[in-house]
Design brief:
This protein is an alpha/beta fold and 190 residues long. Helix content is 33%, strand content 26%. The protein has one domain (2-189): 3-Layer(aba) Sandwich (Rossmann fold). The protein is globular.
């Protein structure tokens, strides 16, 4: 899967956020978008997902493609367990396999079946990341996915992201250059 962005622009109330940008993404290598706040990283993310419209420009390569996403906020079903938050994105979930993946993300058995409303912020974050990875998709987009995770957990989660990506296009918004290095990603500075 390749995505080509050409001459993309987006303004809010007359203030340009994205100004005539052209970028190429491919599944050959993960990409990390970096840059100061307000540079349009999340706006680009939302345009790619179809949640916002560009003012001008074009995006090709997204037609008939499925995206999974990790947003800055977790967007989990709070009343469901961690296990069920994963199962709902799959046609025929293998709950034993999903439980094993949650354990690899550092959750313990007792936490896996609890409503996610009872989990800590870091535990919820890991569930949100894993849900995007197990979802059937052509591309995975993540906006600040590792924010709030302690160092050991962050390293453990990045290892799982690499193992579960399965050749899909990965686009990560981050402010941490080490994240890009650990993912083996190209860095695009917006």
């Amino acid at each position: 899967m390749n995505i080509e962005i050409r001459n993309l622009s987006k303004s809010y109330d007359g203030t340009p956020v994205l100004d005539n940008i052209s970028l190429d993404f491919s599944q050959d290598r993960p990409v990390c978008l970096m840059g100061q706040s307000g540079r349009g990283k999340t706006t680009l993310f939302n345009i790619l997902l179809g949640l916002s419209q560009a003012d001008s420009g074009s995006i090709t390569g997204v037609e008939d493609k499925r995206f999974s996403a990790v947003f800055q906020e977790d967007r989990l079903c709070e009343q469901l367990s961690a296990l069920m938050n994963l199962a709902i994105v799959l046609d025929n979930p293998d709950k034993v396999q999903l439980e094993s993946l949650l354990l690899k993300m550092g959750l313990v058995r007792d936490e896996i079946r609890r409503p996610v409303s009872q989990l800590s912020g870091g535990q919820k974050r890991r569930v949100a990341i894993l849900r995007a990875l197990v979802s059937r998709s052509d591309a995975v987009l993540m906006d600040e996915p590792f924010k709030g995770l302690d160092e050991d957990t962050r390293l453990q989660v990045i290892k799982q992201v690499k193992q579960l990506l399965g050749g899909r296009l990965l686009l990560v918004i981050t402010h941490n250059e080490e994240d890009a290095q650990l993912l083996g990603a190209d860095i695009i500075d917006l």
